[in-house]
Design a protein that fits this description.
By secondary structure, this protein is mainly alpha-helical. The chain has 2 domains: 1-44, Arc Repressor Mutant, subunit A (Orthogonal Bundle); 46-208, Orthogonal Bundle (Tetracycline Repressor, domain 2), CATH 1.10.357. It is 78% helix and 0% strand. The chain starts with a helix and ends with a helix. The model is unreliable at 194-209 (pLDDT under 50).
C-alpha cells in the first residue's frame, strides 16, 4: 500500500471512530491527511470504497490465515488451533479497523457489502469444515452439531474486540494460546471422559431396575 493511501486510510479510521461514517466528509479526510481531493480520488473512487477497503483489510487477512492453516496442517485439531490463534491475533493487528467495522458495517453499499459477506461466509465455512473433519476423524466429539459449534467459536473470538487492550495484562500471543486451549478442550474427544460417562450411565440404569 502506498504511503499516501495508507495515510488516508489511517486518518479515516481515526475520524470514523470518533465521528461515525456519516459524520465525516471527504473534505475532512483530505484536510486531516494533508492531501488533496485529487490525491484522495486517485486511491479511492468514493468514501464508500474507502469503507470497503477498511473492512476488507482484516477480513482478507483472517481468511488467508485460515486457508493457510487448512492447507498446511493435516490433523483437524492442529488446523482448528491455528485458525483460532490467527483469528485472535486479528484483533491486535487490525484493532482500529475492527472497531470501525462493528460501528459502520451497516453502511456498506452494493457491491461492496456482497464482497465482504462472501469473505465472511468463506471464513465461517472453513471453521465448519474443520469441525466436521474432526468429527469424521474421531478427534472431535461426535455429538457436537457442526454449525452451532462453529458459531460458538466465532462468537467467542469475535467478542475479543470489546475488551482487548494492547497494553493489557496478557499479550495477544498469550490470549491466542488461552482461546485455543479452551476451544480445543471443548471439542476434543477424550477417551477418559467417555469411559467415565459410560460408567455413570451404567450406574444410573442399574439403579433404575
Amino acid at each position: 500500500m502506498g504511503q499516501l493511501k495508507d495515510t488516508i486510510l489511517q486518518t479515516s479510521l481515526e475520524l470514523f471512530d470518533k465521528y461515525g461514517y456519516h459524520g465525516v466528509a471527504v473534505n475532512q479526510i483530505v484536510e486531516a491527511s494533508g492531501t488533496s481531493k485529487g490525491g484522495f480520488y486517485h486511491h479511492f473512487q468514493s468514501k464508500d470504497e474507502l469503507l470497503y477497503v477498511i473492512h476488507d483489510q482484516f477480513i482478507t487477512y483472517a481468511l488467508e490465515k485460515a486457508t493457510y492453516a487448512v492447507q498446511h496442517y493435516e490433523s483437524p485439531p492442529k488446523r482448528l488451533e491455528e485458525v483460532v490463534r490467527s483469528f485472535v491475533k486479528v484483533f491486535d493487528i487490525y484493532k482500529p479497523y475492527i472497531s470501525v467495522f462493528y460501528q459502520e458495517s451497516t453502511y456498506l453499499k452494493p457491491p461492496y457489502d456482497h464482497k465482504i459477506k462472501q469473505k465472511r461466509a468463506a471464513f465461517k465455512q472453513i471453521i465448519f469444515q474443520v469441525v466436521e473433519e474432526g468429527k469424521q476423524s474421531g478427534d472431535f466429539r461426535s455429538e457436537l452439531p457442526v454449525e452451532i459449534t462453529g458459531m460458538a467459536i466465532l462468537g467467542m473470538v469475535n467478542w475479543t474486540y470489546k475488551w482487548y487492550q494492547k497494553d493489557g495484562e496478557k499479550t495477544i500471543e498469550e490470549i491466542a494460546d488461552i482461546f485455543a486451549n479452551i476451544i480445543l478442550h471443548a471439542v476434543l474427544y477424550d477417551t477418559r471422559q467417555n469411559v467415565k460417562r459410560t460408567s455413570n450411565e451404567a450406574l444410573f440404569f442399574t439403579k433404575q431396575k
